Amino acid sequence: MAGGIERFALDEADLALICASHAGCPEHAERAAALLDRGGFSVADLLCGAHPPYDAEAAAELVRQGREPSPLHNNCSGKHAGMLLACRLLGYPPEDYVAPGHPLQRDIAGWVARLCGVAPEQMGQGVDGCSAVSFHLPVEAAARGYAALADPAAGGVDAAPADALGRIAAAMTHAPAMVAGRGRFTTRLMEATGGRVVAKEGAEGFYALAVRGPVALGIALKVADGGERCRDGAVLDLLRQMGSLAGEELAELAPFYRPVVTNARGLAVGEVVPDLELEEVGGGGADC
Known about the structure:
- The chain is of the alpha+beta class.
- It is 42% helix and 12% strand.
- It is built from 13 helices and nine strands.
- Strands 3-4-5 form a three-stranded antiparallel sheet. It has a two-stranded antiparallel ribbon with strand order 1-2.
- A hairpin with a 5-residue loop joins strand 1 (124-127) and strand 2 (133-136).
- Helix 2 crosses helix 5, helix 2 (12-18) crosses helix 8 (159-174) and helix 6 (103-116) crosses helix 7 (139-150).
- The longest helix is centred in the middle third of the chain and has 16 residues, at 159-174.
């Protein structure tokens, strides 16, 4: 919308990484480094911190090479590289770009509030694991924001942001491996649904989806205790009950729907089974 795609020659995989909580695979780290280079930044400018890659193979390879994880391996390095590029584009100081009072974070807060239908002053703020600002919203408001991603026109979003939202959804679904990583639930869900579902996980058992189609949906789910063992199955069962997941798609995602529990010997000793009941609420939506 502000010309960043053109100025920094961003393709769909770049945009997808900027929207990612990726697995820290080489393709993720290398693309994040390339994004930094396009803005004249280095790894030292990233304020996300470092942690081992989520991808077990990538983490093991670092150990074999005797290398420590860098901020590029942080699952949020793409988002942070994107924020630095935004600072360069908008003429904002890149120093301390994650601070709540930074002009970029004020801009982001304004867009989140607008798309989720809440007043900026009603949003609480915290610090995410990657040190960026994290917003406190009702689950319903988060779902409303994803509904705008599914169908910007339905949310009354004007033309320029609608175009931006459309490009974001296209990037995430055309390059789903950049959003999460090989074999991970978010990537597999977008692949299995042919991009009809735009998906993104968050911390502490949070998950949100935009379902595109004749009836566009925004869905947000929060596991109350923050656990993630049941989250993926709950997401799939929610989609199933709402008629937003075909039988063959659910079959393809079966390992996530009812994951097998194994013991120390590798024996299957049980499975995690989702058990959700949807209830109609006043606005005609569903609660669970």
